[in-house]
């Protein structure tokens, strides 16, 4: 199964996503903002199969995080999450970097299906 870096500032959403992915057998390491996310990514040597991050977060948003992660590992798939239409539009400019964008609220089935498709 995959190693996933989950970056989400809302505790309930992060817990829901982590639990859902772990029930599918994935290993999920988590951070509560982009700055902690990039620190964890670097500390783990970039050894992740997927970056799953919220777009809108304090300190460092998911778009900046996506750019920084891609500088470290050009092959990692990136899945963004957002509940804000304008943030989804911002993500569309990252078509070469971001694999997909999940719109909040999403269902457990949507999450698992999207992650499964990305990981192939």
TrEMBL record:
Originating organism: Hohaiivirga grylli
Transmembrane segments: none
Residues where 4-aspartylphosphate is found: 54
CDD domains with a match to the protein in the record: REC
Keywords assigned: Phosphoprotein
InterPro entries, per database record: Bact_response_regulator, CheY-like_superfamily, Sig_transdc_resp-reg_receiver
Name used for this protein in its record: Response regulator
Domain Response regulatory: 3-119
């Amino acid at each position: 199964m995959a190693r996933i870096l989950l970056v989400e500032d809302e505790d309930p959403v992060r817990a829901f996503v982590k639990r859902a992915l772990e029930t599918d057998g994935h290993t999920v390491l988590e951070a509560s903002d982009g700055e902690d996310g990039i620190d964890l990514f670097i500390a783990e040597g970039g050894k992740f199969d997927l970056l799953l991050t919220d777009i809108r977060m304090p300190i460092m948003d998911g778009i900046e995080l996506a750019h920084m992660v891609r500088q470290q590992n050009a092959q990692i798939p990136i899945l963004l999450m957002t509940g804000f239409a304008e943030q989804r539009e911002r993500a569309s400019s990252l078509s070469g970097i971001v694999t997909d964008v999940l719109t909040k609220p999403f269902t457990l089935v949507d999450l698992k299906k999207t992650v499964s498709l990305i990981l192939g």
